[in-house]
Amino acid sequence: MRVFKACLLVIKRRMVMFATYFFIFISLSILLSQFSSEDHTGGFEESRPTFTVINRDKETPYTEKMMDFLKAHGTWVPLKDDKEALQDARFNDAVSYILIIPEGFQDALQSEKPVKLLENMTQDSASGYQMSSYVDQYWEYIRTWEKIEGKPDREKTADEVLKLLSSSVKVEKRQYLKTQPVSQGYGAQYQVAPYIILVICVLCITSIFLSFQRPDIRMRNLCGPLKPFTRLWQMGLGCACVGIVFWILLTLAGFVIYYDSVKNMDIRITALILLNSFIMLLFAMAVSVLASLFVKDSNTQNAAANILALGLSFLGGAFVPTSIMGESVLKFAKCLPVYWYEECLSKISGLTGFGMENLLPVWKCMGILLGFTAAVFCVTLAVNKHRSGAEESFGSNKTEIEW
Fold this sequence. Notes:
Largest sheet: 4 strands, mixed
Oligomer: single chain
Number of strands: 4
Strand order of the largest sheet: 2-1-3-4
Number of domains: 2
Strand content: under 5%
Structural class: mainly alpha
Order of helices and strands: HHEHEHEEHHHHHHHHHHHH
Radius of gyration: 32 Å
Distance between the termini: 18 Å
């Protein structure tokens, strides 16, 4: 097992660099845990937008009850009926919604040409539209009631409308899993995990292959008693051991940092997340072996590691959620393996059962990721066979082992 021991020696000499990457990732995970879902509640709480009502019409039970209704769903900010004051309030975001009731509005409710309400709201927020919806509902009920009753008692009509608007539906909240779902902190760690997995695997595996690519070492190995298959098998074993050890460290770090969340999770969900990350590790190792066929020195090695890791991670949705990507970018992202890793992680986090219909999307994403791994492995074999007899394979290379 001399080749295997040589692989471990190469990794040992690069241990400081690998540890630096790993601890940076762990520090990032700790920061993510501070902004995780521990601070948010799972209940529903109605937002209360700020609003102002300027009544240029007469005061009636309609307007009084409307104010009571709006105050029950928002925060009233009293302002003067002054153009400059209203503009300042909107400019400084003192109010999200301004309603102006023009003169003659209530008397024209049943006319063919009703007077329109004047509204000013925040365009890039739902707060203004929320209050506008409340106003529209209230006056639509008033108009409908007046059309039915003719000239009803306004006090009674306004009370009936408030009863209709105050009606609510009972909502029952159910949890289908007996355990807690995936916490945002634990999920965030595995969301960005493809980056560190790709970086470490590319750096480790290319370092091992670089050590055996110097021309004199290659020629010595070719004329030595060790068979090429045995040599490659030991190199593959060394790469696999390094990758698996790193994956175990990454898994243990997640358990330690998010222990309170993980202990309450369903063990089947945890197992699926770990299986998904392990398949990602297999892909990263396959890509690293392919990259090692083109890496000639340490500069090229670092460039390959960062370009592959950052490119695949950013475009695949590890750092940027796929929900905010454009259609063209999303179409391209679906051609990348990291996208299917993130899609699988999302499916696992949203599981409400473990039947075949629930797990089928998860197995589909994992199968696609395994397909990418197999495809990269086949390309690696083809490229290696093509380059094995080429003269450029004996070019100048730097090595980690000095003989």
